[in-house]
Each structure stands twice: as C-alpha cells, then as structure tokens.
Amino acid sequence: MRLVPLGKTGIQVSAVGFGGIPIIRLDFEEAAQVLRHAADKGITLFDTANRYADSEEKMGRTFAGMRDKVVIATKTGQRAAKAAMEELELSLTRLKTDYIDLYQPHQVSQPAELDALLAPGGAMEALVRARAQGKVRSIGITSHSLEMARKLVATGLFATIQFPCNIVETEAAAHLFPEARAAGMGILCMKPFAGGMLDDGGLALRFLRREPDLIVLPGCDTAAQVDQAVEIFSGEAAWSEEDAAKAQGYRDELGSRFCRRCEYCQPCPQGVRITYAMMYRVVAKRMSPAKAVQFASETMETVRNCIDCGECATRCPYNLPIPEMLAEHLAMYDSHKAAQ
Known about the structure:
- The protein is an alpha/beta fold.
- The chain is built from 15 helices and eleven strands.
- It has two domains: 237 residues, NADP-dependent oxidoreductase domain (TIM Barrel), CATH 3.20.20; 65 residues, no CATH class.
C-alpha cells in the first residue's frame, strides 16, 4: 500500500483510508471482520466520529491490542470547550485508547461556527489543551463549504482539512487543495462516492487516485469493497477515455443539485423520510419508473406529510432547497404511479 504524509504531523498513512459510517449497519463481529481485513490489507487510517452511532465502539473493540498499528481519526460536532472535551473523553472510552491521532471539529461551514470554535471558551481551546496532555496528537477540521474550508486553511491552525471531492464535486481541486498543499496540510477526501450516488465504486476511486497526495476515505462494509480500494490505490493512476466518458455521464445525470445522503437534515418532525425521498429521481432512472414506484412507495408517501417548515433546509450543509426538491420528487412519483 502506498503511504503518504498526513500533512506536517509526522504521521504516514495509507493513501486510502477507511470511512467509518457503513459499519454501523453491521453487527460487532461482522464489523470486526471487515476492519481487520482492511488493516491486514495495509489500510492504516480509520476515520469515524462521535455521532456515527456505534462506529467508534466497533473500532475500539477491533483494534484493542493493536493500537500502534492503526491511525485513528474521529470528530466532534461541539463548538464549546466543555462539550467538546466531554465528547473527546467519550470517544477515548469508546475507542479503548488513551490518545486519538487526529481529532477534528466536524462540519464547520458557517462563519458563526468558526467564531464559536475559536472564541475564548470555544472547542479549540479545549483541543489545544488536550493535545498538550497527549490525548490528541494532531488537530484537523472538516467542512462542506468551499468558501469556509479555504478560510479554515488560511488560519494555519489545523494539520488537515477534510472536504468532499468526487466525480461530480470537483471544485476543491482548483483552489482549496493547492492552498492546503502550500500550507503543508494533509488533505482528506470524504464523500468519494458522492454520498452513495455514484454506483461504480471503481470508477469513483480511480478518479481520485489521479491526485497523488489525497487521502481518500471510502466507506466500506464488505471485504470486497476493501479489496477494490486497496487494489486501486496500490497501483498506478489509470484513467481511460471510457472512464472519462462515464464520469461525464454521472455529471450530466446528477448536476450539482442532489442529495449526498449525509442525513444532517434529519429527523423530520413530520416523519418525512427525507434522505430516501431525495433520491427518487435517480432511483426512477436506474430502476425504471414502474419499479421505482413499487420500491419507493412507502418512503414517498411520507412526503405528503411535509408542511414546508424549512427546518431540514437550515441543516443541509449543501444549502439544498429540500422542501422544493421533495415536492418535485413527489410530483414525479405521482406521475409515475398514475401511469401504471
């Protein structure tokens, strides 16, 4: 496995890491098998978060006794010092470790969030103290806003920046990544499959493999997915004309107005299954309208409960007009249903 430096931290990590969300679908033994397989195949960086259900606990159980063989990154969504320290201590307990290699304030995308993070009594104050105590080796940060990510890089406070990049979200390559490189930061690439909207994993990973210093974090829940990622990132950066054409097809299909399935919009007070309803357009195209109606009916019927309160839109890191899009998808579903 090819190794790359994690910015200026002095830590070397595998060029492809392991995203910790999908293992929440597995039981503890299944998760342990996939995690151990990844480590055996040469993956050294494992990324999770306090809010990823039991992901931290599964990593903690799996890596007990081999802590020195893996690099663990986790995250906090808290902006105040006391709450961030509480989450850090909880992560240490769940991960069964006395230190975290890379600790990241998560989803800092609004100016007010950065102000709170850096203010006296803010989370950064606690994390710097935790780093001095040896509980944290390095401090990184994540964002879904390109404008804010560039500001975070410019602060010079963080060892790494984690940001979405994939076939249909390429904006970071023009400015963010060069600025992070110039600052000596490690670049962690989340959402390599665009939140699951790219159903050709090999194509998605080959696209990112072309950047020699990206640390790509695909989410895996099977050994086969791990093997595919390891094979691609252990080899040469192959990219064919056929690959380019297929990638353009995804861009044409998805555009920029699509759900990445991050689920920050949920839960809906009215019980709307927002994430899956937001996928209806793509599901209908890939399955056929008739099959999509049958497959998605239970989900799409919940959209009728939407009262257009807009609460979901305020939580969306991509600023999607969620109620408007849900209404569009419901109208499409109804037209498909009527045509049967």
